[in-house]
Amino acid sequence: MYIVDDLHQINSAFFKLLEATYFNEALTRYTRATIDLIDFVIAKHDELDENEVRFVHGHAWQVLQYLAGSTSKEVPYEVVYALEFALVDWGLEGALITTALADRQDFHFSPAVTWDRLAKIDPRIPIPDDRRPLVQIAIPKLYKQRPLKSVALYHELGHYVDASHSVSERCYFRTVPDAVKLLRESPEVARQIHHHMMEHFADAFAACYCGEAMAGTLEAIAKGHSASPTHPATKDRVECIRDFLSGAQVGQISVFNAVLTDLGLPLLRKRFADIDVAKSFDLIRPIRLEGPEELHGVFSSGWQYLQKIVENPSHHWQDLSKFERSRLVNDLVEKSIRNMQISTGWLNATTQ
Of 73, 154, 196, 254, whose CB has the highest number of CB atoms within 10 Å? Predict the structure, then answer.
């Protein structure tokens, strides 16, 4: 009874979400399909395997968390808009990005249950025609209007790309001597090696799109962190990112690109444009962005501009506190991205 009662409550929460609007209309369809799924499980729970009912219960809780953070009122809209362009580069443009808003300083990626997996529970389960997967990533709630503090979402998207194509897993078997034997005899050691590869790939992926901003973010939120079973030392991660940005194809990067080549996927390379944001930001005005490379580039260039004017303000910035400078630069980045989205949407609408 407890689980079924939970499912009733969760469905009520989903209905409340439908009263809001979503940044992406496809998320409305996903929410409705999840309501239909839960209604079916509530009605047929006595006929279903108890473990499968609990599986749907866990899935519903998780989906609720991420869809609740993805309504137009809550979503870190500008960053998600940029991430959707990154998905296109990797042949994953159909995926639906959802964001959970954490009450602590927590960025993470959480694999989502697919509709194909849910269909296996019972042949009668209502499965939508639109089976696009969710990308479930989390961001601190305090950062949802601070795009320059949110560049780690590119890192989390890198985990999704990795999981979708098994990049780090292939790297593990490609580079570790006696990889299968190690996995069998020393699984903890094998897992640590794999996890570290996952983190280095996600770091390099993020650096492809936001450059030095990813290294700076790591130094800001994880400075001095030593290696753990799940993450390399911050110093090593930052060094790897900066080697990559310098153009060096050594160590992990060369292995990743070899595997990506085998898979017929794009290489890890710079995918953003260096923008002179100062010409607009010095006047406290958003900058005009044209195309995905400039869209991604505003994070890197905006980050570097912020570091400069926080310590050495000029022009209109001199009379503002450091906090106000940070807030306003983030606001300018937000407005620059929003203006691009509006103008692009208008152009697309008038040319169809």
Answer: 154
